[in-house]
Amino acid sequence: MNIVLLGPPGSGKGTQAQTLEKGHGWKYIGTGQILRSLLGRKDKMAAEARAYMDRGELVPDELMVKILLRETEEKWGGGLILDGFPRNLAQAQILETMLAKQNLRIDRVLLIELSEEEVVRRLTERTQCNQCGGIYSERLIICPRCGTPVAQRPDDSPDTIRRRLEVYRQQVEPLLDFYARRKILERIDGSGSVQDVANRVEISLKNR
Ligand code: AP5
Which of 54, 97, 164, 192 has the greatest count of CB atoms below 10 A from its CB? Predict the structure, then answer.
């Protein structure tokens, strides 16, 4: 099954993606995670992307797609979890074309919904590992999974969170219409524990 996860910053997309990856063995493709992992490698394209990320803006579509294709080698069979891509209508159309070339399509789009108050609370507490992608809901210093130092993300400052939420609100509506018309959009309540949300995700995946 090929799934897209949508939802505001901090709604738990990355967390649920990791659970789905473990539970189903589908390939995880998180564009935010891809970009952050490249920043440590002095990658020219990622350095260009960084200026946008630090401001809470979207990386331009052309640059984002170039990085995505280069990093995933365009081999996408066997089940996919897309987190953070597509993020606007243009990217959704590009994705459809990319998948169609491999006789693939998106089967389900899960929109994880969460109040802005809870989003801000979760993001100000989050630490994340750039090495293995581990996501933590507390201010850790060392990643329990891989032993690398973890940190708060530079884009988790209050001003940048606000900007990311604005960008999300502007971009997501047309995307929701696009997937609702294809009858593959499901809304998931993102409140409660990680397990509560994972249970709702599983129920939603089975209910079709
Ligand atoms: P990206 O990394 O995709 O960021 P985002 O969409 O803003 O989402 P986050 O990663 O902040 O949150 P999340 O929903 O994954 O929540 P998480 O699971 O971490 O993108 C970053 C930037 O890269 C963008 O701003 C843009 O610049 C660029 N970019 C990326 N993709 C792009 C694209 N396609 N086009 C252009 N630019 C692109 O959870 C948050 C916290 O809550 C964690 O601490 C977690 O432990 C905790 N938590 C999770 N679930 C629960 C729960 N149920 N209860 C309590 N705590 C929870």
Answer: 164
Given the CA of residue 126, which atom of ligand 1 is nearest to it? 44
Of all protein residues, the one whose alpha carbon is nearest to atom 34 of ligand 1 is: 85
- Ramachandran region, residue 56 (left: φ > 0; alpha: ψ -120 to 50; beta: rest): left
Element (H, E) at 199: helix 194-206
Which positions are annotated as active-site residues?
13, 87, 126, 153, 164
CB 45 within 8 A of CB 66: yes
Judging by DSSP bridges, how do beta strands 135-136 and 127-128 pair with one another? antiparallel
Residue 139 bridge partners (DSSP): none
- Which atom in ligand 1 lies closest to the alpha carbon of residue 192? 53
Q: Quick one: CA dihedral 182, 188, 194, 198, positive or negative?
A: negative
* Tens of each residue's pLDDT in the chain, 208 residues: 999 999 999 999 999 999 999 999 999 999 999 999 888 788 899 899 999 999 999 999 999 999 999 998 766 778 999 999 999 999 999 999 989 988 999 999 999 999 999 999 999 999 999 888 899 999 999 999 999 999 999 999 999 999 999 999 999 889 999 999 999 999 999 999 999 999 999 999 998 7
Read off the pTM.
0.95
3-state secondary structure of 194: helix
Angle between helix axes 44-55 and 31-39 (nearest 10 degrees) is: 120
